[in-house]
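Look at one record.

>
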Amino acid sequence: MITLPPHLEIHDDRFAALIHPMSQLEVIAEGFTWTEGPVWFGDHDCLLFSDIPSQRIMRWSEHEGLSVFRTGSGFNNGNTRDRQGRLVGCRHGMRDVVRTEIDGSLTVLADRFDGKRLNSPNDVVVSSDGAVWFTDPTYGIISNFEGYRSDPEQSGRNVFRMSPGGELSAVVTDFSQPNGLCFSPDEKTLYIAESGSSHDDSVPSVIRRFAVEGGDLRDTGIFAEIDDGLPDGMRCDVMGNLWSSAADGVHCFDSEGTRLGKILVPQVVSNLCFGGRDGHRMFITATTSVYRVFVDVRGAEPWTLGKQ
C-alpha cells in the first residue's frame, strides 16, 4: 500500500489519478499580508499574484525568485489573462476592472453600472469571445484593510458581464457575496462561489452553477458545498474537474459536484491556478504565503501557458 503524504486526502478513487504520492507541498514565497489572485504567464515563465493590503502585485519565477511587479496596485485582488496575453485585474481601491496593456499602460474596463460606482470587483474571467465576466461583492468597501471604507452605491452584489463591445450587464443579482468564478472547459457552464458566510453564518458556503446562454446565465442550482470554510477562487482542469479554495486547502470536485479529494494546506486558501513549465504545477495563495504542488492534470486555460 502506498502511503500518501499528509497534504493529500482522497475521498474518491478517481482523485488518485489527479495527484501523485511523491508530490510535495512547497512554500515558494511567504511573509505577505493576504495573498490572492494567482495567474501564470507561461511565455514569461512566471507567476503573478496580489498582496492585497500591501497594495502590491508580486512576481515569482523559478530562476529569478521573488520581485515586485507593481506597487500602488489599488488593492488589486483577482487576476486573469485574456486571449491576447494581457493581465486583467480587479482593484478594490479604484472599484474597477483594469487591463494592463502590452506597453504597461492601464485601461479601465468597468467602474460604473447604471451611473453608480461598482462595489469592489473581486474576481474576473475572460471568455473566448472576449467578454469579461466579474464578481462585485462589498469586501473592498466594508473596511480599510483591503480597500477604502465606503457605502455601496449598487443596490446589490452582482455578477457582471462586459461584452466585447463594452456593454456592461448584471447577469446574476441574487448573491449575498459573489466571489470566485470560472468556466468549464467547454464554456457551457460558469461556476460562481458564494462567500457570504464570511459575515453571515446563515449563508451557505456553496458553489453555484449556471448554464451559459450567449450573454446570459441560467441558474442550474447548487453545484457543491464546501465543508470547511467557504469557497473563494476556483479553476477547472482539462478533464472538467473543479478545484476550489477552502479553509483547509483546495477541494477537488468532478463535473457533477462529487468531492474527489483535498490538497490540505496549513493556511486558509484564497485562490489557486495551474501553471509551471509543464503545466502540472498548482500554485496556491493562502493567507501570508504562496504554495506549489504537483498535480497530474493540466488547467483548462492553455493561454496562461503561453499556448492557444
